[in-house]
Every structure is written in structure tokens, then in C-alpha cells.
Amino acid sequence: MNNLARLAGVFVLAFGITVGIAFVGGLILAEGTPENPDVDREHLAFDNVAPGDVQTDSAVEMDSDEPENTVVIQLGAPTADPIQDPLLGITEAPSLAQTSSVVGEESVTPLVNALLEQGHDIEFAASGGQDPVGQPGMTDGQPSPLSDQLADADAFITFEPGLLSDAETEAVSEFAEAGGRTVIAADPGSPADASVVGSSHGLFVESGFLFNMAENDNNYLSIFAEPSGQSELTAGVDEAVFRTAAPVGTTDGAPAFVTDEGTERSVDGETDSYGVAAVNGDMAMIGDSSFLIPENANAADNSVLIGNLADFLVTGDIDEEAFEPDIPDEPVPPAEPIPPEEPPENDVPDDEDAPEDDEFPEDDEFPEDDEFPEDDE
């Protein structure tokens, strides 16, 4: 009997607990099941890639002690249609019209401040944007503003090579060939424009952008890059973070920076280690400009890379005579037209030279008609 009582007690207790759980669960479910929030896809746009977790000191320092140099900077233009991720089907026709991350003077303050602190001069470029008429660097027969600036410059950096006119592109190439240090920040979206500028030194950009799903700085578009050898850009850099990178190559030697082997390219999904920066002579090409803006300058060793870039710009040796656009000191006014010579006056005999009336024969001195011989005579 006692055993039955115990079993009955256990049963009642278990039943009570079960009912209690069901009652409490009912109260919880009565509040409604929370819906899954919409997936925030804004992070897929390059403009919204935020700084990640890899942070270091952001102070930019230069090692060179070069005397005053003039650096001309061409800024990028903002875009209303940022690149999105085609692999996730966010857009049916993904735009590849991405422009530079550097779209205002404040965007390059880490680089500019480092140069100014060393006593160098900064000029922001004004692009003529017209096709040449006459010699390279000419627009409408006159030197373009950029060509004029390069004539007095030691270095040039462009964040939007697509803004250069054909004349300015040729002027930049001649500037680099004369020893003027030139840097091309070739963000994804316009590989042809950057490759045209870099072709004189064997530098080019491939189409698409790079991403890494496994190794990244808080976002798969924020990829890591490491030096692949020794160059003026790699000194002291163990790792850099590029947030909007395009693949960069060179026909002479190896890239200066490469990605990890798990990096993919957007246009074909091919996984490989890609070059993202290269240097050849007096020209350098970097497949990203985002590392320069203030919020990214303190990621990994980006500040060291910016310092190396500043040193590269001011340590060239330009041959000013080799690059000297034909710019007249003052416009030469057109010469006054020379009036045509007056035609020579006809020779009219003076009155004294004219024959007197008595010198002309009288009518009676002419022979009569019968005095002329007949035809048969």
C-alpha cells in the first residue's frame, strides 16, 4: 500500500510539473514568436565597408629628408552607384563604375599632413578634360591646367585615372618617363583607364574586385595584403588592409603586395593569391585607395604604408629638361596685316613728249585711192 501511495505521489508530481511547463510555455508563446529581422545588405556596398578590428598606431612618419618637393594630387569623383556583390545576387547587373574612396581633400589628410610636416608643397590638380589639339598636354591649342602644374612638379598621384583626358594621360606618362614620381590608385571599376596610364611602365589592373570569406578584417571585402618582396612601398610593413581592392599586375618582375591564397575575384570566383600593388621605376600602382583615408589609416600597418608612399613620391629625380611643355610666357598677339603694295602707275608720256599737232600728217598728205596699186598689179 505504501508503494502504491508513493507511485501515485510521483505521478501526481510529474503531472503537475508537466502542466506547469505547458502553462508557462503557453504564456510565452502567447506573446508571439519574434520574426527574423531583414538582412541588412548595405554592408555589401563598398562605400559602407567600415574599419575592422585590426588596429595599430595611426601616426604617419616619413624616413626621407629630401628638400622641398611639389606633389600634385588628383582627387577622385563620388559615385551614386557603388559596387555590389554579384555572387549573392544583390543586383541583376552589378555596376563596376566604382570610383575612388578619396573624393575630397579631407580624405587624404594622413598623406598630406605627413608631406607638409616635412616641408613639401601640395597642389590639387585641375583637369582640363579635353582632347588634345596640337602637342601632348594641350587643350584647344593651349596647355591643360594639369600639364601646366606638372611642368613645375616633382611628383603626381591620381585617385581617378578615368578623369584624365587623352592629352593629360600622355603628359603623365611623359612626366613619369622623365623621372617624375607617379602613383596610380586604381580602385575597382575602371581597369582600362588605369592600365592606359600605367602601360608606359608595364603596370596594369585586371577587372573585378577581390574578397576573402575566410581571412578578412571584419568584412569579406576588407582583405589582407602582405609584401611579396623588397620595394620602396614594403619597408616595415608586415600586413596592410585594403577594403576595396582590384587585382594589379606588372609585366616586369613581381607585385609588391599580394593577398592570401584564399582570395577570390568577383568576375569569375577564381581563388588565388592576387597582386594588389606593384612598382616599376618611377611609377607605382596600388589597387585600392581606401587605406589612405583617416578611418582606415590606423588599420594593421597602413600608416607605415602611407609613410612609404610619401617617401616614394619625394625621392625621385626628375629631368626637368626632358619634361618641359611648350608654355609661352605671354600670349603673342597676332601681327598686324601688311597692306598690299600699290600697283605701279602706268607710264603716261609728259605733255612735252607728246607729238605736236603739226607733226601728224595732214589729210591731203595721205595718198588718194587711185594712187594705190591694183591687186592685179
Question: Care to give the gist of this entry?
Answer:
Helices cover 20% and strands 15% of the residues. With 377 residues, the protein is α/β, with parallel strands linked by helices.
Feature tags:
Rossmann fold; elongated; nine-stranded mixed sheet; 6 helices; three-stranded antiparallel sheet; alpha/beta; 20% helix; 377 residues
* Topology-level CATH name of the domain at 69-314: Rossmann fold
Based on Cα principal axes, name the global outline.
elongated
The residue-averaged pLDDT reads 75
Q: For this structure, what is the CATH homologous superfamily of the domain at 69-314?
A: Class I glutamine amidotransferase (GATase) domain
Q: Ends: how far apart?
A: 193 Å
Number of helices: 6
Spatially, the strands of the biggest sheet line up as 2-1-5-6-16-15-12-9-10
How many β strands by DSSP? 16
pLDDT below 50 for ≥5 consecutive residues: which ranges? 24-57, 80-98, 128-141
What is Rg?
A: 41 Å
Largest sheet properties: 9 strands, mixed
- The helix fraction, in percent, is 10-25%
